[in-house]
């Protein structure tokens, strides 16, 4: 019997398959020939079988180094189902008692066990190293190998010790496996494991069945999310959040809206986590709301949607998590909600880390942000990031490819970009280059005197997103690249240097908006988000009339987002009105009666069926924290001290206070304003808001002057203004 026939027979006997997928057989042959191998295979490609099958056929026990207890248990259970012998696969980790570990070691010594899973922490323990020295090792498999690299999305310091541990135990072939690795991460993995000469097996990253979409993350994100899930007819899905608290709150919100959902995060006790995971796998619940820990190694083939409620920290993480959708080749919707505020919040979390770590995290975040804001085919961008070229310009299965674009020749701007990068000796990142060309004076530009460059302000009419799109398109075309060693500095390739000497047409796809025809501003700056523009207009007129009667600016009564929500959901009772964002009990009582009367009349006159069936029921969020903030302010606690005691940034504290005040609750912060704001400055800011048409902070800063006024002070006085006149 040939090796091929032997492998096919074993594949049929143990796993019930008649043929291998992709490079599986070549990988198995490599390890059976005693060679090191690096396996780069997307989620759902069948990585596990690459080490499971040879372990059953080779002498000794295969050591599988795996990062998650849930992953180990899942795979051990699966292997035991393939065999008559329970002892064929075991794991050693912190979930086992000493007697249980002793029983595992006994099975290993008797030769019953062919696969032994260990966490890297367990591999580092001297007692386990000493035990494994006396065991014949067939090979080592390092699963989720991206954890080795600091450029990977789930870096774990313990993974860096694997090579020294395996050398102490005894040399055997090493197989490193990952679903996500850029060329830089791949090199890091191979170098750290001492396997630079390994055979490399790369499968395509393209998952044609997955649909990629990025949606703006607005105040109505929960409503958007619930609408989407209700339209999925009970199909299974995963929602990823970055914070445990968000996981708990969102799962509760889904439940009160009649969607079966459970939370999953590392802060829960192991028994609850396991029970929730099993409930999802057994389809007792439709949705699991989780942090990124959930899903690694979970073999559920019919997950029909993966939603990122928060923008991920890296494209590697995003790709791996979306890869859990449609593993059976069927429908897989990958929706990501994106807000620039989330990026800024993630960057703030990095501030206390070492500089090198900050640089890496910021660069990974920048790549994610670029992906979210890009107008280029999402699939093309993702594959390019992982070093794979996608030949088509339109995949037909992402939101960008379903939009209408016009191709714009941007060769002139690209030449300016390349020239500026070369003038600066290729030592700066794209943000800095764009700021120079747009004529933006940042601290870095002032420090380096780059405002004195000839190209400074030469592309001031171009917006930031267009400039980023040009750079991304130039990277895909091979004219520009990012140097990963210098944390993302732009470098010009030989092709880029030729281009700047002999420019040709360079077309970039830019989205066409309906407003383009009359040259008005495009995007979210125009129009309203109201479903009923007529109702919205009536409410605005009524607000204007009321503002004249009371002598206060219209925005003090209700802000535009509140009116937009009213013109979408048509509240006709006081209770419904208080469910509108920005309308608390105080404002509802003060201004609500007249608005409710007008809305009710409009609904009756126009026979409008109100969207009550789509109304998102909310659960009380942070009520304890809000009460404690109100009580602390009543005790005149300094706001910066209060923020620190709550583990919040000052900006987050102001957002909380603004939400409290805007909803109609009186909150006197004069004591703090007196401490930090000059009286003349306070008077000027207050006077501005008296006469302003909007309380938009950026408009206020532009009017008052960024150099003369501190944004924190303006926000504080704005809160005082709303408190004085609106509550």
Describe this structure in words.
It is a single chain. This protein is α/β, with parallel strands linked by helices and 727 residues long. The protein folds into 5 domains: 3-202, Rossmann fold, CATH 3.40.50; 210-349, Rossmann fold (3-Layer(aba) Sandwich), CATH 3.40.50.300; 404-524, Winged helix-like DNA-binding domain superfamily/Winged helix DNA-binding domain (Arc Repressor Mutant, subunit A, Orthogonal Bundle), CATH 1.10.10.10; 533-614, DNA polymerase, domain 1 (Orthogonal Bundle); 623-726, Orthogonal Bundle (Arc Repressor Mutant, subunit A). The protein is 49% helix and 11% strand. It contains 34 helices and 17 strands. The strands form 4 sheets. A 7-stranded parallel beta sheet has the order 3-4-2-5-6-1-7, with helices on both faces. A 6-stranded parallel beta sheet has the order 8-13-12-9-11-10, with helices on both faces. Strand 3 (89-92), helix 5 (98-109) and strand 4 form a beta-alpha-beta unit. The protein is globular, with a radius of gyration of 29 Å. The protein starts with a helix and ends with a helix.
List keywords for this structure.
single chain, Rossmann fold, Arc Repressor Mutant, subunit A, 5 domains, 7-stranded parallel beta sheet, globular
